Every structure is written in structure tokens, then in C-alpha cells.
């Protein structure tokens, strides 16, 4: 499923109308009728329905919805919100009127109070172009709608929600359902704005699919994508062909982090795994994991420190960061890994803090570099506040990944994977049960295994993120709750996920 910005959607509309020759009125008719069909199972013919129509294309869609429902016997009243209708919107208002429809005036003294009698409110006021504070009469109308008990259905976006980010977001219609035209917009996946959509689904209106795909800078990564790209183990493969990974981490205060990452790497298919950690941490990891081998690394005061004789040349991929500590001597070890390794290197947790003051190291690497920050760590790397990051995750992630030429895994409810060329993939698996310490360590281990088994790093990362989230979903569906799920439980969910992928 493609995800498009307002600019990208406008370009697709332009191409459809100017290059293909599909008139704007035909697209509006297609949109309104398709959305009306999607709405019908949610409403009854005896429900009192108000359709709030703006003056632009969103309003035109609303008049088509109103006319379609009216023609099929529903109790519909259209409401004009805003003046100076576009030509297409005015045309469909006229057609609705000619069918016997009534258009109420939002500015009438009794209108806002009359909303209290509505069973269903259809929001078709504002579309893609919303930014910043809204003006009257939209502000009063939105507040009135949100104070009712009516079922609220939105066309394309809930009015007030911007398409691209939440930087200037103020207030919006709180929809129960949103019927998105052709492709979701980034705000359907942003923490601050996603709840306003309610449940949502896309509605195809006949826009050129191939061109939409070429314009879209982001898309969701689905089960079908995973099945299409997931590597198949060959009959004569062996532990060497399935990847030899090196996992560096673990201090005396956090031995569990490297333990969970190591367990996940092996469960996700790594052929061989060497854990580089403090000598006193090895017994703790070994008690949970007999299959790994170990390299003792230098340490001081219970944390890892730099060592000149570190050799990473024998490995197919390296992960560093979890439980290491954030001191300068420890940071020097991480930087040495980045400078020496000619294979993919993934940095997580403390490793992200190690490179904050020397980001040029990332740009100078020839092999892929993967960063897996949660929002707090990403905000630290960008020198911004967490709220700003959460308002503009797509834009800020793309800027960082392209400037420093890294694969960026911005973790969250909808994890955004960004490639060095700016391509973005959004993961929709997972649930709040993952909001526990250690979940990120498990993800890093899974990603290590995936990077050694795929030829394409972006596919490897996207598949790893999908598998991680899907394991949590499987466990909550079958045996656990979101409350009791632990990071170590995820290893038990991997087997079912992998079996499902292979079917």
C-alpha cells in the first residue's frame, strides 16, 4: 500500500486529468460513489444523516455522497461549510439540489444545535491542503461535531488533519471511520494525528496505479512483500552460508540486553554467532544460550572499552551498542568497529550515543550502516525535542538517512524504515505489548540474522521489523496478553511467524 504526501497526490491527480484525460468531475463522481458504497453498511435508512461539505474538491466528493445516499432512500441533509465553491463542487451541489436535496447553511443560527439530533455525520469539509490554525466557520463546526454522540465518517482525511505531518496541527474532526481516497497520507501513521482517523480503509477511484506508485516516496511493508522477498534455505546450505555474526555489548549492569539480542539472532536463523562482551558477563549469557561462541573484550568498571586488537574481518555483519555504557572509552570501541568493518554494521542503544559527536563516520563508510533508534534516541541524534520528532517523523527520518547515508529504523507504533536514497517503508505489525525493556534488543538480533541472509539490506531490515512485530501479534493472539508479554517471549513467537511465511 502506497503512502503519499499532499504534493505527491496532487501530482497524481494532475497526471490523471492532464496527461490521461480523466476529467476532475469524473474523478469526483467516482470518489463520492465509491465512498458512499463503503459507508452504507455502517448506516441505516432511518438514520438522520448530515453531510458537511466544504467549498473544494472534498466538498464536491461530499455532495456526490449525499446525492447517492439520497437517491437510495436515506434521510440526508447536505450542509455547505465555506463559500466560493470550485466549479466541480458547485456542479455536484446543483445535481444534489435537482434530485430534491436540501442544503442547510452552516451559519444559520439554529444549525449547530441541530447537529445534536444527527445519527450520522459525514465530514467532507477540508481535504489535503490543510495547514495551521483553522478559521471560522470550520472551528465551530468541528467542535460541534466532536461534542455529539453521532457516528462520524470522514472523507479522505478528517477535517483539520494535515496530510504530511503534525507540526502545525491544532484540532480536527474525531472520526469513527475514514475512507481514504486511493492511498493513505503520512498522518495516518503519526502518533499525534492517527487517532483522529478512527478505523480507516482506502477507496480506489481509478487514478493511474502505476504512476501513483512511481510518485509515492513511502509504502507499507506487507505480509505479501515478506513472502515475496524472504530467503529460502537451500538444501546444501550450512552454518557458514547462513551467516557468521558478531554481536558486541553487555556490561555488568545490563547483561540481559546482549543475551536477548543473541538469542533472537540465532532464533532468526544466524548460522554462527560470536558474542563480544566482558569476561564476567559471558557466564550469564552462556546460561541462556549454549549455541553461541564468545570473545572476551577489554573492560573497566563493568563496561566495555576500546581495544586495539579487535578483529571484525571474519564476520558477515556486526551489531553493537546494547548494554555497553556511554563513556568515551566505550564510544571509541564503537567508532573502531565502524572504521574497520567492511560489512553491515548495526548500531542500537548506547551505540547511538557513541556516534552522536562524530556522525561523519557514518557517511564515510562503504558498507551499509543501520541505526535503530527509538524516538528519544532519534531526537538526541537530531538535536530536537521528542515532540518535534513525533510530529515530523517521515521528513526528519528521510533527511537524516539521506544526509548520512544510513538505513534508519525509527521505532514506534508504526516503525519507519528509511533507506539512504530516501525510500521509506512503514511496518504495521506489532502491538503495545512490545512496550517493554528488551524489545529493541530482540529486534537488533533479528535484524542481524536478516542482514546476513538477504542480498538487499532494505528488504532484510523491513522483513526483520515485520517478523519482530508479527511475533508479538501471534503471541497475544494465542497465549499472552499485552500486559504480560516479555521481550524474551518473542523468541517463542518466531517459529510460527517463519512457518507462516514459508506456506
TrEMBL record:
Keywords: ATP-binding, Isomerase, Lyase, Metal-binding, Multifunctional enzyme, NAD, NADP, Nucleotide-binding, Potassium
A Gene Ontology biological process term: nicotinamide nucleotide metabolic process
Pfam families from the UniProt entry: Carb_kinase, YjeF_N
Function: Bifunctional enzyme that catalyzes the epimerization of the S- and R-forms of NAD(P)HX and the dehydration of the S-form of NAD(P)HX at the expense of ADP, which is converted to AMP. This allows the repair of both epimers of NAD(P)HX, a damaged form of NAD(P)H that is a result of enzymatic or heat-dependent hydration. Catalyzes the dehydration of the S-form of NAD(P)HX at the expense of ADP, which is converted to AMP. Together with NAD(P)HX epimerase, which catalyzes the epimerization of the S- and R-forms, the enzyme allows the repair of both epimers of NAD(P)HX, a damaged form of NAD(P)H that is a result of enzymatic or heat-dependent hydration.
Molecular function GO labels: ADP-dependent NAD(P)H-hydrate dehydratase activity; ATP binding; metal ion binding; NAD(P)HX epimerase activity
InterPro entries (UniProt xref): Carbohydrate_kinase_pred_CS, CARKD, Nnr, Ribokinase-like, YjeF_N_dom, YjeF_N_dom_sf
Cofactor(s) for this UniProt protein: K(+); Mg(2+)
Residues that hold AMP according to the record: 411-415, 440
Record organism: Terribacillus aidingensis
Amino-acid positions noted as binding K(+) in the UniProt annotation, renumbered to this chain: 58, 123, 159
Cofactor note: Binds 1 potassium ion per subunit.
YjeF N-terminal domain span: 9-213
Reaction catalysis annotation: (6S)-NADHX + ADP = AMP + phosphate + NADH + H(+); (6R)-NADHX = (6S)-NADHX; (6R)-NADPHX = (6S)-NADPHX; (6S)-NADPHX + ADP = AMP + phosphate + NADPH + H(+)
Binding site for (6S)-NADPHX: 57-61, 127-133, 138, 156, 323, 374, 441
Stored PROSITE patterns: YJEF_C_2, YJEF_C_3, YJEF_N
Domain YjeF C-terminal residue range list: 222-501
UniProt entry tagged with the keyword Phosphoprotein: no
Similarity annotation: Belongs to the NnrD/CARKD family.
CDD domains: YXKO-related
NAD in keyword set: yes
Protein name as it appears in the record: Bifunctional NAD(P)H-hydrate repair enzyme
Entry-linked PANTHER family: ATP-DEPENDENT (S)-NAD(P)H-HYDRATE DEHYDRATASE, ATP-DEPENDENT (S)-NAD(P)H-HYDRATE DEHYDRATASE FAMILY MEMBER
E.C. number(s) listed in UniProt: 4.2.1.136, 5.1.99.6
Quaternary structure, from the entry: Homotetramer.
